[in-house]
Structures are given as C-alpha cells and as structure tokens.
C-alpha cells in the first residue's frame, strides 16, 4: 500500500479545488492529476503538472509550416505525419511533471535519460524511510540462459524461498544499522551522508521528474519495451496509460510508429524486396549476420 | 503596429474563455496570457502557455530537502536561499512557452541559447512577410570607439539620413525581387528555399520558444544586461516584466542575486579585504590586469 | 576558390609538423586534418581536431558489458550490434571538431542541431567579407509542385538569367552599402552590430563546430538525406566522406542501419506480413493513409 | 590498492607506444594519460583521451572575435578575459575522457551533471566485484549540528568501532548473498539484474565519463568546493591536479575567477560600497537575511 491516509487526504484536497485558467486544458489529463497510481510494492507515479495537449503540437507545427495546414479536421493526420517523418520539435512543446517513488536501482537506470529535470529526495539531507522493493514470487526470475541482460523463468521451491529470505533480512539488517548509526541518543550519530551508504539498492527513493513529450516518448520506447527490465517497465507502462489520455492522437501515433514499429537496415530492406519478388532468401544470401537474421525472421513472423 | 485586427480578435477570443483546471495557477501570469506585447517596430512577445509558479519551486526543493522546510511563511526565504546557493534544479520545474516575432539577426543571437525548444516559421515552406526592422533615429548608433562589440552615440544629420535610406531601400528592393523570383505567373518561379537567401537579416521571423525558468534566467541575465545589443535587450526586458508577475519571489531573488549582483575573483576579494582593513590598493598591488581593475573600480563606485 | 594562398600555407605548415602522442590515433583521419575541402562556391569543411576511433567505441561498450565481449576480431560485429540496437552512448565517446565556412541561410538550419558546441564569427565584433553564395545554373531550381518544402527542375532561359542577376546585384549593392555605412572616413560610421542587418542570407559566415559521433550521425542522417536542401546536403556529404575514413566500421554500420535503413510502422509491418503470406494488400485494407501508403510502396520498390 | 598487476601492465604497455599525430598536443597531459591515480580505498581516476589545449580555447575565441586578438603573447590574458566575462563556448572546445572507479553513492551525485557522456559498468549484464568503500577513521564523521547537509567531528571510541563493524559486516554479508543468489551450481541462479538490488551503496562501480572543459569546470566548482561531500571532493581534487597540467592558463583563470571567487548580491554590493565609504553597516541596515549576512561576513574576513 503505497499511500498513507494523510497523503490520500492531501490528494483529495488538491483534487477538490479547481481554478480557472486561460491555458490549454486536457480533460483527459485533468482526471489523473495528483492521483498516485501504485507501481511495484511501495512505488507510485502521479502527475503533478502538465503543459499542452494534442492541439499544442499541431499549433507549433503550424507556426513552422504556415497556413496551409489549418483545417481542424486534420489534427490527427498532421500528428501522424509529424511522427512518421521524425519532426520532433512540435512534440517538445508539451511538458509533463511527475512525482515518482521508485527503488534506487530503477532510479539509476531512469536517470540515464539526461534530457529531463529532476529533484530527488536527498539522503544527505534527510532520512530515508524503511521501504524496500521485494519482488513478487512470479518476478523472482532466474538469469536468462540466452541473454546476458535478461531474465528467464521464475525461481521455485527452496531457492526462491532462500532468495526472498536474503533480500528481506539483508534489507532489514542494513536499515536497522542505518537507523542505529544515525541515532543521536547516547552517541554523536554518524553523518547521514555517510550512513546512507549502508543501504541496499532496493530501498525506495522519490523524485519530481519533468520532461517534454518528445523525450518522454523516447524514454517510453526504450523502457516500455519488452526487453526493458520488468521493474522499470511497469513504471513506463503506467505512464503510457496516462499519456494516452493526455494526448490521445500523439500517443496513438507513437504506438503505431514507435512502439509497434521497427527499423530495418538496408540489407533487410533488400532481402524484403527480393522476398516480395518471389525469391527465397536465406541468412547466407541476405548479407545479414546470424543475430540480425534471427531478429529479422522474428519480426516478420510476429503477430501484429 | 505589430498586430492585425484579426490577430487581436483571436487573442480576445482566447482570453474570453477560461476553463477549469486542477493545476497550479499563477494569477499574475493569467492576465498576460496570449496578449502580444509590441517590441521594436513589428515584433512582439506573447505568452502561449506556462507551467508552475513560485510554489512549484519550493515544492520541488522540499522533495529534495524533506519536511524541515515546510512552513508556508518561508517560501520567499527558501527561494532566496536556493538562488544564492546556485540550486538550479527547483527553478527548472517551471516552464514558459512564448510566441516571439523578431528580426532574423536577433533570432541568430537568441538561438545560441541551446537549452530550449523551438519551432520557427519555415522560409523553405512558406513565404515571409514584407516586414523589416528599421531602427528609430535614436537607435541608429555609431560604432563604439572603446568597445569592438558595442555602439556609441546616435548618428546625426546627413549620415543618419543616408543610413536610413540604405536600410529601407535595400530591404524594399530585396523583397521586391524575392516576390518576383517566387512568382509563378508567366514563369516557373524559383524555389522558396532558394529565394529566401536574397532577404537581409532585418526581416522578421517568428517562433514558439519554450524554456524552463532556470535557463530563462540565464538568458535574461545575459540579454537584459546593459552590454547586450539593444535589439535583443528590449525583448529580454519585456520578458522580465512578464516573469516578475508570473513568479514574483523568484524574480525578485533573480534581480538581487543575478541581475544586480556581480562575481568577484580571488584577487578582487583579496583587494577588497585589504581595502576594508584600511590599506590603499592600486591596480599594481592588486595583481589584477588593467581591464579587470577598471571593471572592479566601476563596480565599487556604481550606484546600487 | 575558397582558400587564399595564406590559408593554404598555414594548412601546409600545420600538416608538416607531426608530434608524438599516447592517445588513440585514427590514421584515416590524420590524412584529412586541417585540409579545407571546398563546398559550394566559397565554403569549405576542414577537420581541426578529433578524439577516438572505432576502437574507442568498442572500448566504451566493453566498460558497460564486461569481459564477455573482449575478442578483438569482434570489433566490427560489436559496432554493428550497438548501432542496430540503438545503444548510443558508446558512439558519444568519439568527438570531432570542424571548421566550416557556409552561407548564413545554411547556418540557420545547421544550428537547429543543439547538441553541439559552436564558436561562430561575430558580425557584431568583426567585419564580414564580401562573399556570397550564388547557385550554379543547374541548382537554380523552381519550386516543387508536389512538395511545399522542395525544389523541382532547374529554371531556364530568361527566368534563370533574371534570377541570377537579382541575386548578384542585390548582394553587391547590400554589401556596398554595408561597407559604406561602417566606413569611418569623413563620418562616424554605423555600429557593426547594426550594419550587418543589411546583409542578405547568402553571405558566408564561419564557425568551429564540435560534436560527438552519435549526434553527428543524427545530423548526417537528416542532412545527407535526399530530402535535405541541396545547399546543406553537400556539406553533410563532404563530412560523410571524412567520417568514413575516421571510423570505418561505425560509418559502414551507420550507412546500413540509418542512411539506407527505414522505419516501418505497426500497420506497415502488418501489411508486409500479410503480403509475404501471399495476400494482396491495398491502401484501403492496410489501414495506412494515402501518404503513408505511397511512401510504403516507394520503399518496397526502391533499388537497394 | 586499486590496480591489479594486470591493469598496471596494460597501462605500462599503452604508455610505451607513442604514435604520431598532427593534432594539438598538451605535453602536460600526455604525462598523465592512462595512469590510474588512486582515490579513496579502491577507486581511481585516469585520463583515457583528451582533445585540445589552452591554444584551442583562444583559437576558437579568435574565430568569433576576428583578427584583432591574434598576438600569441596574449593567450593568457585572452583566456582570463573569456573566463571573467562568462564566455563559455571557447572552453567547450576542449574535451576530456576519464575512466573513473567510484562508490555507487558517489556515482549517484556525479551523474546529476547531465551535460556529459557516460558508459557505466552494467550490473544487469555483468557481476560486480567485491569492493566496498569503508571510510578511514578520520572520515567517519558525525552529523553536523549546524548544517543538515554536512558532517562534523570524527566519531570516536566505541561508536566509531561499531559503525566500522556495521559497514564492513553488512557489506560482506550482502555480497556473500549476492554471490550465492546468482550462483548456478545446484540451482537456477537469480537474474543479475535482480540480485544487484541486494548490494549497498558503498559498492564500487566504474565508468567512462567524457565532458567538455566548460562543463568540467562547472562540475569542479561544485564538487571541489569545501561544502561538497568529502567522498566526491577527493575525485574532483584529483581531476583539478590533472586539468592544471592539461590547460594551465585556463585552470589558473578558473581558480581565480571561480574556485576562489564569489558572487555578491545587489544588497551585498550596496553594503560594500557603504562600508568602503566609511559607514558602519549591520545586518539590519544591510537588507540581507541573517543567513546571507553571516556568509557575507565570512567572505570578507576569509584569508585569500
């Protein structure tokens, strides 16, 4: 349960007091504002603020391309055109600010997306809460045997139990010692900026994260992808659901051209043309490496 | 007169239809929304959208620094503290989107600020209007004799008249030929992406420009400064007036610590300490170069 | 002829004095260093400095992925893998610094790529040379009738002659007046920061431009593309030739996966799968818009 | 001892084979190349590559400012001028690539500097080594009583011993369990991307970090500062020593204007002017807050 009654109360209060504005309003987004959607065992995602809507994207595009594109009925088509042709600047005209609570090892992946603004909870300054991510049994997965960077089947039986026990007891002991070290009763108390080093990477942190829609789509393409680590993917998926309501045309175009799309190399395109002309193409005659050929075959046989 | 009746009508319509939102609202900013404030002879600045207010800055800072800083009465003090100690990330949590019409040579300076999002009118795609910046007589200044990168007194008499005549007639002739070259009556018509090269740098362009408050302050510090070229400074000053209403605490701190402040070198600080102790310090005994010493003296004698 | 004898002499002198270094050296790049390759009528591109080579890319990747990838024979395969899977950070480990002389209207497109470092010749501070881009007759193209943002056939006969005459005489007159306005004999002389506004956009400027390889590839994909305006494309193509010698494996992967590749939408992939299964797919049954379908057909029928 | 004999051997081999280049060479930097300078108990900093030298900075400035600044004797003065007037782009023309081994909690601070390129060791892909930062006794400091974000005196006696024991034994136990969980003998073995979450933040990671000189100076100003946490400051100080040899003029200017300098607010400048005119100024009559006044007094009484 990620939210305390006090937090829920604060959210309810914020949601109860609408104000007037002359700005663009996305009705689909207003209904999400402030609500903390639970992710993992103690995490959440909630929208703190946003700027713009689908119309802000086409409006910016029309500054560039002039009056020819003005008919309102064209909004969806124009957005699809912009997405297809990698015109990224109109999508940068929308902005979102999220409050995210997430385990430190997820935060370490997330922060690699540099084109965003971040204010993170400071463990130099403040004391971290006793909250650790402990995977659900079905997520306690074995190392993948085919992919260095992935996971396979869930562990089972004794092994699963032992792993769970380690994760829980190590987190608890590290946190007990963290608390004891910074405590100031009967002792000086270790500096917080030092004591935090004893905390394992499944402890939760939180931050405000602000990003424009273009860079958010880039983040979502990588992190909502099936190859992303499960623990960051669930955050990305939650954000996808929100964005779909915020900018429905842009999100649909993103799904079609980015999430559901694929980039083919010159060699792959050449193989395709030959296949469509009736030729039987093999890995050897394609010029592709084995790895690339395997990915190519998977792509062509996938269900849409 | 920068606005056509149609544009004014559109602005009036936008301003007439407030909607409800749950987001943070800056009342000071709402009154500016959409209004085009004239700058130079044909330019303007107008706010298209914004995100956040003073409270959004302290709210983000409190995510980092925890509960100790919560009392509302502290908002101004906290913002001043953040500004004084160069804590830039909380200021990045506010965002503004402007529509700006400006001469091309001003746009070329402006765009050097890279941390912003831009959609500019495309002269490849569309036809530019016949609008050129022609300086007011008092801005028709001579080259500075002490500063390679500055201007001195206004030109006068015949010289001023001749310069004005050149600027006007060259702009007119270049635009006449531009129009004639792209015309398609009785001829093919030159591609717009080529014809635009005949237009001088005082022609007006326009763009949407979106930036966060931290980077906007950086822009304003450089461009609202007395050393900035007049033609960009008037835009920066207009934006200053808007920002002062949008985030009054942050803007006041910016004025005190950035616009009105100064950075002193180790040598200058050392000289100061000696002067306060009663020593007479000269350029020679200060270790400063002549140029730096001159700037140091100017700073200490300036009226606050 | 873009280079003066003095410039050529300076380049020859720089090229005559090799020094010793312990850094990674790209032999293919050393032969290009300092040489100014002519582009358009007065422009050039020359390499001032570089950091890294193909090996720097794989070296950085191996810091991330550990020892499994160590065999040297794998360098090309690893680079292709990184490019195929959009692992951009290893490519950011190479850097190039170029000196470019280019018309202002080209510089205005170029600068939109924000992730680069730039030092441009300042027309506020210094006087611009009398050098204007005047297109070759075969590049004096008509506006495209099918694409707002493109050009069609070359103009011919009287129209071509008239356009050339306008471009040349307007440039000359504007420059004459520029010179006259800033002149200080018998008059004060207009400030350079103002006088420059009289110069048309085909005047040449120059800059140092420094960028990492990942962002350079992004620039080249957009600007060496057949849809890019000819006048920037010739710069991009010249840079492509240099990069091919600098990082041959990375450049070959870039050609295959980016320049020669294509991104297909989910709808396009679905159509492809159905076509490979023997179904006849039309625009109507594909779910694609007319525009997208046209692009899809063109892609499949193109020669590799 | 941070380096294995194998690593030292590799460094010696790299340092033994100079090659010829036509690029700018910094002799002061060549002597540092590849050498791993120890930092903390298991960390290090070493230079992998660099681009440019002091001359590259003035060369770029001269592209902007033209021929007036050409005399070679002026290099130091020009660099000081650029630094004093916040002309940042010429400093961006130098680039450095470092290999850094550092504790995770230090890496988390470091990565907040976004304008850099990073390739970090992937604990999703590879297994982390059993190396943890354990502070020296004199660094085992108590929480500061005056600064939420700082440390005071070193702990002593039993308390120090207990803290050391916790840090060591928790790290050892967490790593034992990490190893056991990913082990594949007689069990499936937990995915590495999950097992890593059991490791505390004092474990070491490593990365390649590439940054331009302007942004490096920004990093050093914040992290070599006395208010920075000791564990990141020692890295910054080590880098300072290297940079002083790489670009001696630029580094000296940085020390004078940034590290040793200070920014005064408008109110502080006003107080100074009054003090220099003989007036006695107090906090009350200065308009400064108590905190700002305290900092102001400290600055003026500091030894240069």
UniProtKB/TrEMBL annotation, chains A, B, C, D:
Co-factor(s): FAD
Keywords: FAD, Flavoprotein, Methyltransferase, NADP, Nucleotide biosynthesis, Transferase
Cited SUPFAM superfamilies: Thymidylate synthase-complementing protein Thy1
Single GO MF annotation: flavin adenine dinucleotide binding
Record-level GO BP terms: dTMP biosynthetic process; dTTP biosynthetic process; methylation
Binding annotation for FAD: 89, 112-114, 120, 212-214, 218
Cofactor binding note of this UniProt entry: Binds 4 FAD per tetramer. Each FAD binding site is formed by three monomers.
EC number annotated for this UniProt entry: 2.1.1.148
Entry-linked Pfam families: Thy1
The keyword Ubl conjugation is annotated on this UniProt entry: no
Residues that coordinate or bind dUMP: 109-112, 120-124, 196, 223
Catalytic reaction equation(s): dUMP + (6R)-5,10-methylene-5,6,7,8-tetrahydrofolate + NADPH + H(+) = dTMP + (6S)-5,6,7,8-tetrahydrofolate + NADP(+)
Active site residues according to the UniProt entry: 223
PROSITE patterns in the record: THYX
Listed pathway(s): Pyrimidine metabolism; dTTP biosynthesis
Family statement drawn from the similarity comment of this UniProt entry: Belongs to the thymidylate synthase ThyX family.
Cross-referenced NCBIfam families: thyX
Its biological purpose: Catalyzes the reductive methylation of 2'-deoxyuridine-5'-monophosphate (dUMP) to 2'-deoxythymidine-5'-monophosphate (dTMP) while utilizing 5,10-methylenetetrahydrofolate (mTHF) as the methyl donor, and NADPH and FADH(2) as the reductant.
Subunit structure: Homotetramer.
Protein name according to UniProt: Flavin-dependent thymidylate synthase
Organism listed in the record: Pseudoruegeria aquimaris
């Amino acid at each position: 349960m990620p939210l305390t009654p006090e937090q829920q109360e604060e959210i309810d209060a914020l949601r109860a007091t609408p104000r007037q504005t002359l700005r663009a309003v996305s009705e689909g987004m207003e209904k999400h504002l402030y609500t903390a959607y639970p992710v993992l065992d103690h995490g959440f995602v909630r929208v703190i603020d946003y700027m713009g809507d689908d119309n802000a994207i086409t409006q910016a595009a029309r500054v560039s391309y002039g009056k020819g594109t003005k008919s309102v009925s064209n909004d969806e088509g124009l957005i699809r055109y912009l997405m297809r042709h990698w015109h990224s600047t109109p999508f940068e005209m929308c902005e979102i600010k999220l409050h995210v609570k997430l385990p430190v090892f997820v935060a370490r992946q997330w922060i690699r997306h540099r084109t965003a603004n971040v204010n993170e909870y400071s463990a130099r300054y403040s004391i971290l809460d006793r909250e650790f991510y402990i995977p659900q049994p079905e997520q306690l997965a074995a190392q993948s045997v085919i992919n260095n960077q992935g996971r396979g089947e869930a562990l089972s039986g004794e092994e699963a139990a032992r792993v769970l026990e380690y994760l829980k007891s190590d987190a608890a002991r590290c946190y007990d010692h963290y608390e004891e070290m910074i405590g100031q009763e009967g002792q000086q108390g270790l500096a917080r900026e030092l004591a935090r080093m004893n905390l394992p990477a499944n402890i939760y942190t939180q931050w405000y994260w602000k990003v424009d829609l273009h860079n958010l789509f880039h983040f979502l393409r990588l992190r909502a992808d099936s190859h992303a680590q499960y623990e960051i993917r669930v955050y990305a998926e939650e954000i996808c659901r929100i964005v779909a309501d915020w900018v429905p045309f842009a999100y649909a175009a993103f799904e079609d051209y980015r999430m559901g799309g694929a980039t083919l190399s010159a060699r792959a395109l050449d193989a395709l043309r030959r296949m469509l002309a009736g030729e039987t193409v093999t890995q050897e005659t394609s010029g592709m490496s084995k790895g690339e050929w395997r990915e190519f075959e998977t792509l062509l046989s996938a269900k849409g």
